[in-house]
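Take just one protein record:
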Amino acid sequence: EVQLVESGGGLVQAGGSLRLSCATSGFTFEDFTIGWFRQAPGKGREAASCISGVDGRTYYADSVSGRFTISNDHAKKTVYLQMNNLKPEDTAVYSCNVLYNGNNYWGQGTQVTVSS
């Protein structure tokens, strides 16, 4: 029932921008926190940013703070990640996540590649 579908990844030059989307369904969007995670080759998965559906509070990893902006659209039940001033080290598969009824749900992921 829970579904998370990411889109918006692609290839961009360093300094460029991308906007990722995570369309959600199957749960009450306003009651949960949605996170954007990323995993680069040879690295573990890390949380880049999260946003609360309850109050809109946000979290940013130090590595993306000031460059990325997370937002949501309650009507569309979609979380966005605006990524500006991208760096090659941002290259990763980006996935969105929700912890729902004790289980972590993940989207299929979208590839972001930043060339130097």
